[in-house]
């Protein structure tokens, strides 16, 4: 009991101070590491960031509750004045730094709960200050508290508002109004618009162009990129007039801006109120620091005084940092350009280059630039990291310490962290996408969206329907006549998408391993590494990030196929050879099994996909051996995988794309936004169809509206005039018998008249 008694005494004396320092430390970690999520999905920094995000709220809430319920037994009466002064800083910690408002997308959905939490915490902090500072006549600590409390409450309200505005439902409801504001074509955007003529865009210029096109990315994330009433969507055509490097860079910048809206306070910082708060905050904390400096500290603990100075100085430095970043951000340029300002002021700030000079100066003062030498706009780019998973390599690699992995997997599954553990376990599968492979992929994607302009035959052109409903069938139908297969391959694309990836991944691995390597290596286009990268990337999504793929999540089918592949390796392979050689040997084993028995694997569900993949590889190998067209065959396989990549990106749910932005981003998300840029142009339609639809949907010019109104007015006057004219009474229908008698009478009269005239 002695140890427990001493521990209780220590916590009674120092527990509150430990909690306050923990809250401060958690916010410091959030400030330093919040940007890591733009580039990484796992690692110790992500774990540290998650712990800090949880700890920041828990510690601040606990400390405020402790202060509210204390009755003088925790600290002495004199000490309580200074400790109570920490309450506004705890509210500041609950408000969090500007560079993170939500850790996960689900946090934005809980903004209403955070609002109730805000009311309770503000009431508790106000009560603490009133009871322990105001009622005790604490001198200069009273005005210092009255300065810091409203500032802290405002910062906390900002976070709650940022969470609400980061909710996809709220973005959807406000996107149309905000699009009209952000897409206003001021003189600043006039300069940005000419950037499409530049061969290679720098990071800053690409970011400015991304701001101009951001309304399209924002609408795509919540609803649809095509706005038939908008006259500004034509601006996104600029992205297809750029080189692939610039096109990719602009889209990556757009997604980084979307990250700002979803996971930071950007939606509330870059407003008139946000700028006002950031101008006032450094001044307010400076005054509060001076008031505390002249506050008599007799009877106060030295440690409490040091903690208070730490809180004040840190608050001032952070406020100054947020002010510099806000003024130097390109969000400010977009904000000023979209708002109705006096023409002279807008021209002086945006069109003369003064804002850009101010931007460069403020950026040079950014702590990240001063300390780490990081270019502020460079951190927004996607790190070109993709996951790669090869099933044959997975079955043949050395699995030392397997029991530890199995134990951790069982534990993670039990506590509901299976996906998190799976991501961490496969972090070794993350690799940088080679530049030449990235070039091949984006150039081919660009060709897809421009195929209606370059194709000689309309049947070869891609339409948006082909991209969003097919996953390789179109590429296979467009194959050269030299690559006619002995078997109709259209049936290979009729299964579930993830099942199709499994079959084509296995078939591709067998083909690339068993084909004539001399013919493959002679190709200078670099198709083999590009095919391997796309095949293993989509296979990684099946194995690890199933939420990033459309259709049914066939986890069990993947597991039984992997198990069947492992059993074949154990039975026919040699575990002593290297992993690379083992992969080649396993591919050869599968090929021989299919060659010796055409019906192999079809009778068993576990090996059915292996048999289909081996059959695919068998047909590809036959073509490569029958014709000297290895280059065209590799082009065909690459085209099929590009189509699968496009389908995966365009058919994945928007919420999954939004979630992945906080986990380092994804190649399929970039491909999806590029496709959304092509959406307004209805790719694949003939020129006459596109023109007809454009004419029917396009907003009419004022002169056309005037002519139409005059024509409608003239038609209305003619209609009224006809109504006023006297009309003849309608004829009464005559019975058929009466009508026949009348005809007979007329005939007799006519005959009589003829006879009379003859006489």
Automatic annotation (TrEMBL):
Q: Mark the transmembrane ranges.
A: 14-34, 46-65, 85-104, 275-294, 306-324
Give me the stretches of Basic and acidic residues compositional bias. 701-725, 738-747
Keywords for the protein's UniProt record, in alphabetical order: Membrane, Transmembrane, Transmembrane helix
Q: What is the lineage of its organism?
A: Eukaryota, Viridiplantae, Streptophyta, Embryophyta, Tracheophyta
Q: What is this protein called?
A: DUF4220 domain-containing protein
State the superkingdom. Eukaryota
The chain positions of domain DUF4220 read 50-393
Give the span(s) annotated as Disordered. 683-759
Q: Does the keyword rRNA-binding apply?
A: no
